[in-house]
Amino acid sequence: MIMRRGIIIGIALTFFLSSVCWSAPIYNPATGHWYDVVSSGSVQDGSWNSAESNAMALGGHLVTINDAAEETWLRSTFGSSTRYWIGFNDAAVEGTWVWSSGEAVTYTNWALGEPNNATPPPVGEDYAVLNWSGSAWNDWDHKRGDYFYISGIAELKSVPEPMSMLLLGLGLVGLAGVSRRKF
């Protein structure tokens, strides 16, 4: 019974982690951080909020871009034609752009005329997208009529080592066994 429960827990953890991120995180030695593509939910949702929640589930936030060098690295690593949600947003106060990580704004790379909040309230455009027109950012929202599904890029300060995940899994299996044992 313990082995069966351990297998079920292992499968559940695998499905949870695979739904949050799609690949192994990639390390950027210039920033000392790890980066990964995260889902933004179902094709019907695809929201910035879902991508941010998935980034937080991995222990980070959607990426904070601090300078042109980091943005160049992101484009060379994840592609310069695929659009991605980044952590920049003005959801709390229209026109006041902040990073979801809480870091100070030290760099922006808006496309010409952006941000423009082109879709009027109540929808608005409160979330930044990387690779708009291939080289800049745009404010956008998943509720726009011309929206198509995009993922996000998560930035992580650290990544759990495989041994840590193994120990976590074994600990959960052990706890399941102890809770079923009668004294």
Briefly characterize the structure.
Helices cover 32% and strands 20% of the residues.
Structure characteristics:
8 strands, alpha+beta, eight-stranded mixed beta sheet, 32% helix, globular, Mannose-Binding Protein A, Chain A, 2 domains, 183 residues
Could you explain the architecture of this structure?
This protein is of the alpha+beta class and 183 residues long. The chain folds into two domains: 1-20 and 162-183; 26-158, Mannose-Binding Protein A, subunit A (Mannose-Binding Protein A, Chain A). It has helices at residues 2-20, 48-57, 68-78, 162-180, and strands spanning 26-28, 33-38, 61-62, 84-89, 98-99, 127-132, 136-140, 151-156. Strands 1, 2, 3, 4, 5, 6, 7 and 8 form an eight-stranded mixed β-sheet that branches. α1 packs across α4. The two termini are 17 Å apart. Residues 15-22 have low confidence and may be disordered.
List low-pLDDT spans.
15-22
Strand content: 15-25%
Reading off the top of the CATH hierarchy, the class of the largest domain is best stated as: Alpha Beta
Q: How many domains make up the 3D coordinates?
A: 2
